[in-house]
Amino acid sequence: MAVGVSDRGSIRSGLGEWVVQRLTAVYLLVYIIIALIYFTIWPISSYTDWVQLSSNLFYKISTLLFIFSLLAHAWLGLKSVFLDYIKPWRLRFLLQMVLATVLLGIGVWALLVIGVK
Amino acid sequence: MKQTAQRPVFLNLLQIRLPLGGVLSILHRISGVLLVLAIPFFVYFLQLMSGGESSFSHAQELLQSVPGKILTSVIIWVLIQHSISGIRHLMMDLDYGYNKQVARKTATVAFAVSLLLIILTGVLIWL
């Protein structure tokens, strides 16, 4: 979405980011509420409970989607915080690249923890 | 574009006097930044849970320990604050509560609901 970087940030990416920030917010909320209800009704009281839940495909897909929504939400949120408080754009760009690397790394980590097994 | 560049910008956080909605908004930011720091803990916890039976019970022990409880409650409290102010912002996106008087009311309600949920989860975790 980002087409270029200038002293005012990337130019054409605004509306798409606005939508993604809201959509991920809604998904995160819905996931947390459903998880709360689920764990209230079926608490994880033993290792077998956990194995059963964590090997379920629906759990894996929805949880990975949760983590990737979380990472996207964090990326957009921190980007606008950087945009407001870090004026030198080269420094801001560098920080954004560091952030992107860290968040992508966490995404791969989550993929290995949840997806593979 | 030249005109927009000339606009005055005032972002001195120590001098800005914010209305209640503004306080809520800046809290939303601060809690958001803090929640990013919680992400690695969350994934690490999932990894411990999934690392076999002894690793699973280690994760349970960590969760029950005092430092574990402190960390979980702080994350949950920050998450509550962020979610409630986030819901208010989403409602504003849908054009509800954009009017100044209503915005003030929803800001008060958001503070009250957050506080209530924070107390409730505090009781559930610590008592």
Descriptive tags:
heterodimer, A: 117 residues, 3 helical TM bundles of succinate and fumarate reductases, B: 127 residues
Structure description:
The complex is a heterodimer of chains A (117) and B (127). Chain A is mainly α. Chain A has a single domain (16-41, 56-115), classed as 3 helical TM bundles of succinate and fumarate reductases. Chain A is built from four helices and no strands. Chain A is elongated, with a radius of gyration of 18 Å. The two termini of chain A are 33 Å apart. Chain B is mainly alpha-helical. Chain B has a single domain (19-126), classed as Fumarate reductase/succinate dehydrogenase, transmembrane subunit (3 helical TM bundles of succinate and fumarate reductases, Up-down Bundle), CATH 1.20.1300. Chain B is 80% helix and 0% strand. Chain B has five helices and no strands. The longest helix of chain B has 30 residues, at 20-49. The chains are: A mainly alpha (117), B mainly alpha (127). The interface between A and B is medium-sized, with 23 and 22 residues.
Helix-strand blueprint:
The complex is a heterodimer of chains A (117) and B (127).
Chain A: H1 14-41, H2 47-54, H3 57-85, H4 89-115
Helix pairs in contact in A: 1-3, 3-4
Chain B: H1 2-6, H2 20-49, H3 53-64, H4 66-93, H5 100-126
